Structures are given as structure tokens and as C-alpha cells.
Amino acid sequence: MIKILDKDLKEAAGKGIDEFLAVFTEAYWKEINGELNADAMSKLNGHQNALLAYSIFREEMNDGGFVQLIQNGYGGYFFDNPFAKAMRLFGAKPLSKLVYAAKKIYDENKKELERETTDEEFLSMYVDFEDFDELEEEFFMIEEQTTNAIAHYVYENISLFAEIV
């Protein structure tokens, strides 16, 4: 089990929700040596994997939305795994619905969305896949609520995420 120092957790919690969650995800990244692959992921339990996935999802969405997320190789990671279900279990039901809606677009256009592109082709994908725009706007509207719900779930179920020492 991943160990987190109680003092580090309390200090982070005093700074805010993002810092609180980062204590966990930073410990996970350290445990998997910064590599996101099947072998590394087997070192984390399902709850830890889901929390790490949310941090990646949030970062990708804030940097470039679904097109960037998929082009960076995370399409299957989010859409072919139980990420949406985990978010629902974590209390982030609106995010779960949003991911299922994005999965539909992804599944229908997977080959095109995952193909190697030039910078120009990549940028044109934002026009070609405007169906993601509404979902991205919705994400930004629910992001704070979602992060709060996930932080609450982690706090209430902390032993599933780390051993506090």
C-alpha cells in the first residue's frame, strides 16, 4: 500500500483541495516511476488508478480538451476502461455522463482521432470534431464541483487510497 505522511496530508489539505489530491497522485507517480503502463498500473489498486486517471484527465482537458487527450494516446485509457464508472462511484455523476457522451464520439471516430498527425492536421481536428466543444464547455462548468466530490470521496474512504502514517 502507498504510504503518505500524516503531516504532509494535513499540510496539503490546509492549502486546498487540489493540493490534498496532489499528495496522493504524486505518491502514485513515484510508485510507478512516472510511467503509465500495464506493469506500473498493477502496482496501484483500482481506487488509486481511478484517482490518478482523474488527475491526468483534468490536466489534459485543461490543456487541450478531448482532441489533445486522444492525440496524446489516452483515448483507450479513458474510453476503453471503467473510468466513467469509477467517477460515478466517486460521486462525480455529471463527469461520468460527460465521459460516456465523449466515448460515443470517440468510438465512432477512433481511427481518425488516433492517427498520427502533423501540427496543422492536429489543429484542424478541433474544427473537424466540434462535437467535443459542448462537452468540453460542460467539463469546465462542472470541474470544481467534480474535484470537490472526488476529494470528499477520497477523504471519506482514505484507506482505499493510501496508508496514512
Outline the fold blueprint.
Layout (H helix, E strand, L loop, with lengths): L2 E2 L1 H10 L1 H15 L6 H4 L4 H34 L3 H7 L3 H22 L4 H10 L2 H26 L6 E2 L1
Parallel strand pairs: 1-2
Question: Characteristics of this structure?
Answer:
single chain; 165 residues; mainly alpha; two-stranded parallel sheet
Overview of this structure, please?
78% of the residues lie in helices and 2% in strands. The protein has eight helices and two strands. It has a two-stranded parallel sheet. It is globular and about 50 Å long. The mean pLDDT is 96.
Q: Give, in spatial order, the strands making up the sheet with the most strands.
A: 1-2
Oligomeric state of the chains present here: single chain
What is the number of helical segments per DSSP (H or I, 4+ residues)? 8
Low-confidence stretches: none
User: How far is the N terminus from the C terminus?
Assistant: 11 Å
Global structural class: mainly alpha
Q: Roughly how much helix do the residues carry, as a percent range? A: over 70%
In short:
The protein is mostly helical and 165 residues long. It is 78% helix and 2% strand.
